[in-house]
Amino acid sequence: MIEVDLVAVKGKSEAGHIYTLPPEQIAEEQFISQHSALLGAYRRQDWASALRLLDDGRLAAARFLAPVYDLYRRRIAQFQIEAPPANWDGVFTAEEK
């Protein structure tokens, strides 16, 4: 199982971790390490590190996660224009159920 996001749905105060199952066994420890580093950088608002990790070949090779990585790129681009609140904890709040 691979964590892909931390989401709170509209009207809820608590966030839930979102996971996915890879279509095949991912045994490459470096991929898991890079993916975890990406989530950490994103949640720390370290946009430069997160973007650098997104461009890493190991993450790009995981094609099943390409839509997730594209989503992170779009979020980061928006946060670079309009920073999240000072107390932001990395949780994405879905505006629709």
Structure description:
The protein is of the alpha+beta class and 97 residues long. It has one domain (2-94). The chain has four helices and three strands, in the order E-E-H-H-H-H-E. A three-stranded mixed β-sheet has the order 2-1-3. A hairpin with a 6-residue loop joins strand 1 (2-9) and strand 2. It is globular and about 35 Å long. The chain starts with a strand and ends with a strand. The mean pLDDT is 87.
Kindly summarize this structure in a few lines.
With 97 residues, this protein is α+β, with helices and mostly antiparallel strands.
Order of helices and strands: EEHHHHE
Q: Strand sequence of the main sheet, in spatial order?
A: 2-1-3
| Radius of gyration using CA atoms only | 14 Å
Q: What are the low-pLDDT stretches, counting only 5+ consecutive residues below 50? A: none
The overall pLDDT average reads 87
Domain module tally:
1
Largest sheet: 3 strands, mixed
Morphology: globular
Distance between the termini: 24 Å
Number of helices: 4
Secondary structure: number of strands: 3
Structural class estimated from helices and strands: alpha+beta
Which range best describes the helical content: under 10%, 10-25%, 25-40%, 40-55%, 55-70% or over 70%? 40-55%
Strand content: 15-25%
